[in-house]
Structure formats: structure tokens, C-alpha cells
Amino acid sequence: MNITKNNVDALNAIVTIDVTRDDFQNNVEEVLKNYKKNASIPGFRKGQVPMSLIKKQYETAVMIDEINKLLQEKLSEYIQEEKLDILGNPLPVAKDIDWNSDTFSFDFELGLAPEFDVDLSAKNDIVRYEIEADEEMLNEQVEYIQKQYGKEVHKENVDEDDDITVKVSNEEENIENTYTFNVSEIRTKTNQKKFIGKKTGDTVKISTKGLFKDDHKLMEMLNVDHDKVHGLEIDVDCTVEDIVNREKAELNQEFFDRLFGEGKVTSEAELKEKIKDDAEKQFAQQADHKFTNDVVEFLVANTKVDLPETFLKKWLQTVGETKLDEQQAEEEYNKSENGLKYQLIEGKLIKDNELQVTIEEIKNHAADLIKQQLAQFGQADIAEDEVNNIVGRVLTNQEETQRISEQIMNEKMLKLFSDNVKAKAKKVTYKDFVKEVYGE
């Protein structure tokens, strides 16, 4: 057997494997012997079928099967030994084969991963947001918590500061959902007045255009996705199912202890500080997510990554349960091109910066997650041995282990970006962040 590689260009190569009958004939003979032992052919007792008849019926098919096994094995070994960085899987080149010959030659197309450089320090327009909880937001959250833990009073008629539960429907858009909101959250006084005075069972027809200040509320109300809700202008029927007024809980020590435990918060100022800390931790995650996405988009747009396009489109036609035609493969390639580019960019960054996830990091990360979850249920003082036992059980799940590993690598990538990407720092309130990022 002989294997050679011919580079068509920097991104494509042809691997040729020359096979002789001696390379596979012993395997063919062994398979045919087993066939002979178990063959059941009319006119012959089991195991007594002549080998000549077995060969006549099965030899060519067995030979093709053994050659394919041999080719896959040797091609895989060759790619590993030569350290070839390929994209997709090798594609066999169709050709006519004389199966009566003593020598055979098979060609395989390879798509090669490109060579490229990644410049994290390049000039860019990326903004690194620092989101702060301002006084207006803190006051809103305090009032919200007071109402949340206040006394519920069910009412007959809707007033301007009531929570109402409505059944929302629009037959044409196949919308049917139950949603609770405060009348004051509706954007205009005109729309608010449509609900004020209504009682359980009454139906209000209202337009979705600009119904709430935040389109995310409309998205929740209609139970539709983010893309659909933007610019959606339809009339919906809102049938009132419940009317509740919440009397605000008094800001006293009993209230603080109920929320956070005895003596942990003793004043409204400390309550606001607690809310601020918790909110800004969540905001930091959103800001990091936005920063990472912006860096990824920048790298994909500004890193020259040439791909073996023709090969990949041909390869896409061969993978998956449903075979694709040329047009479908073209469409699939266009959808996945940027994702593939970033996979290559990320792989290079991981390799060049020697980023790796160790089993100890996975165990420690899992332990931290478990401790956080247990603390939420009041089990803050759990013994370390018990935590380790839980970690051991969790890590027997390969999917969970992979998920944790990806989380750790994402954190390493974020640190790499933070240390090297020259982004512009900008401090904003959460409302300004939403407005700048989502235009809302």
C-alpha cells in the first residue's frame, strides 16, 4: 500500500491510496470462510456449500467492503501522522474501478484549514459597558418589592395602579396567552383609560403598537419571540380574569428580616445597597455577554480567514440524514460560514494562548455551583465531603461535564478579550444600556 498527497492549492489537497490485492485478500478469505460455515443455500446442507459458489455470490461485495474498511483506517492514520488540519471529512473521488484487477487506486479530496493571524489589539469601535443601578431604578425596585410582599386585595373594578390578569388573544396571529401586568405600565393615558373601570369578564380591544415602554413586556404578554415583536402592529382582545391591588408592605425590620434573614438588613439605605449589588452583578453578566458578542463579530469581520468553499459546499451535500442538493448546500454554507470562521479563530486563540480546562477546574467550578444552589435553599454550611460526593455524581454525566467545561473556557476567553481588546469603556444606567443596544 502506498499513500501520497498532492496539494491542489493552500486549501485543497488530493490524497491517493494505492492498494494491492495482498493488502486485503486475507481478510476477504476469512469473511468468506465464515459465510461458508453459515450459508444456507437450497440443495446444500449448512456448512457444505462449495467455496466456489460462495465466492461467485459474495466475493466482490466482501472485497469492496474490506477495501472500504482498509481505506478508512489508513486514511485516518495518515491524517493523524501527517498532522493534517482538515475541515469536514475526506470526500472520495468517483471513478470507475475494475474489481478484477490486482491493483487499485483511490483518490480523496481534503479541505485544509487555512493559515491566518488574529490581532486582538487591532483598532475597533467596540464599547465595554459598565451598567450601574441608578437611584430611579432602586426606588422602582423598592416599590416593586413592597408591592410583591404586600397584602393582596381582590377588587371588582380596575383602577390605575392595579395588577390585572388578562387572557390575550388574536386568532389571525395564533396568539393566546394569559398575562399579568400593572395598569400603570401601559404607555399612554388613553390606553390606560380603556382598562380603568372594567370588571372581571370584560374584554378590551387594544393595539399592540407602543403598548409598553419596553417591548420585552409585549413579547411576554403575547408569548412571541424577540424578532416578531418588533414593529408588530395588531389588535388583541384582552379579557379581564382577575383584578388585584397590592397594598405596599411597610419598610420596617420585620419586612427586612423576612426578605434577607434576621438582622442582615436594618434600613432602607441598606436595602437599596443590597438591591444595587445584586442588580449590578446581573448587569455585569449582560455587559460581558454583549462585549464578547461584539468582539466575536469584530474578529469574524476583520480577520482574513480563507475557506475551501467549493469543497465545503460539496461536503455539506453528503452529511446529515437528509441529503442536500447544490442550492441547499449553498444556502447552508452561507448560513454557517461565519460560524465556521469563528470556530477556526477561537481554536487558534486557544492554541496560541495555551488555554485549557483541567479536571480540577471542572471540579472546583461544579463545587461552587452546588454551594450556590444549596445556599439558596438555606444550606450554607454543608460539609466539604458532601459537596465532593455531589460533584462526583454530577461529573458522571458527560453532558453536564461538557457544559461546565464550556463555561470555564468561555470565562477564559472573556478574560483574554478583556486583557487584549482595546475597547472604549462606557458607564451607563440599565435603561440607557437597553436603549443603546436594542434601540428600545
UniProtKB/TrEMBL annotation:
SUPFAM superfamilies xrefs: Triger factor/SurA peptide-binding domain-like, Trigger factor ribosome-binding domain
Keyword terms: Chaperone, Isomerase, Rotamase
UniProt domain Trigger factor ribosome-binding bacterial: residue ranges: 1-143
Protein name: Trigger factor
EC number: 5.2.1.8
Pfam families: Trigger_C (PF05698), Trigger_N (PF05697)
One annotated GO molecular function: ribosome binding
Organism field: Avrilella dinanensis
Cellular localisation: Cytoplasm
Superkingdom of the organism of origin: Bacteria
Main subcellular location: cytoplasm
Root EC class: isomerase
Similarity remark: Belongs to the FKBP-type PPIase family. Tig subfamily.
Chemical reaction(s) catalysed: [protein]-peptidylproline (omega=180) = [protein]-peptidylproline (omega=0)
Biological process according to GO: 'de novo' cotranslational protein folding; protein transport; protein unfolding
Domain Trigger factor C-terminal: 269-373
A GO CC term assigned to this protein in UniProt: cytoplasm
